[in-house]
Amino acid sequence: MSEETDPNLWRPDNTIPCFMACLQRLLYCVRYSILLHYFIPENNFFHSRFNATNKEKLETILTNLYARGINCFAYSVTLRDYQRQHYKDNHPLTQVNFTTFELFIDLSNLKKMYLLYHCLHHSRTVACKSLFTLYLSKSCWFVPDTSKHLFTSYSAENKHQYSKYKHDLSHLIVGVHSDAVTGWLILASYLYVRKNYVASLRLTNYALQKYTDEKIFNGSGLTKYELTFIQKHVLNLMKTEKLYSVLRSLRIETLTFGPNSSIIPQELQLDVTRMRTCYYPLPFAYFLGFLCNYHLQDITSCRHYLKKLILTKKNDSIHVSLFKANTAIMCGVAHQLIGEAYFAKILFQEAAMQDEFNCTSAATRLSSFT
Description:
It holds the Pfam family Mab-21_C. The protein is mainly α. The protein has helices at residues 15-31, 52-68, 80-87, 98-106, 109-122, 126-139, 143-154, 158-175, 182-193, 197-210, 229-237, 243-250, 281-295, 299-314, 321-337, 341-354, 362-367, and strands at 216-217, 251-252, 255-257, 277-279. Strands 1-2 form a two-stranded parallel sheet. A two-stranded antiparallel sheet has the order 3-4.
């Protein structure tokens, strides 16, 4: 099966989509009882190989495996204990004191990668399994971009596009388990790009409801983050909970889109033409709510979300210039869409001043006003 796929696609970062494509191909072969020899097409390996009962059983097994995706391995004899041990973790948070928790919140992405590498290769503790599981969920945010090369190599037909949609959606749903809010916003952005504005708006509002004072922003590792009294109090109340549950329910990750991301709103595509970019989740949620209502032609709600977006910019407590510049750009784009070019230009100028290394689209957007 794998020989029918371009060998260049079988890269470590693309193994899962390739595996799923092979599984889908195998299901097709079983369903229609055809598996031709790679070098001798006249030889059909599946000719009269199964009776009706065995064929039905095998087809059912493969269908269930494909529906589970990569999680099908969790049900295998080899790996099932890993998942069971993880979710039966009874180690309380008291074993991971506040200092350790704050240290993890402030780690840069590069240091987190080293930590995850250590968790995978050198440690079998429950805490390490929890961290690895969380970031495995986060990796699902980027599946739509890594899988697009695989699916476009087959065909642009509707059935293949639908297969990609199901594939991407299933992984993004796994991605919502990475933290309290941002995974939902990634899924909402994906649905927005696919013009499902009503569903995107509902998920955005759901994410905003979960954005409460006790939530802990993971930050970028560039600035020191100290827990507030409320956050420490909630952590203390959850001291008997599993570490996995605490990190998943209280953490808010940075919203990250890769270069040429296919799930970022079209209105922000200029910011990912050369490199990845990051957003503070709260203003992004208000901006996404604005965009959904704009396309649904609900101007009153547009104004409401724009007002909230502007307030987050004024009250921004995250002292990272990229976040500030991107928030100003979102405000500017919103004003531009509703015909308020004067305010849009001022906001793009503000973003350009904060963008010391020209990492955003602020300068490009400003040039359109000259």
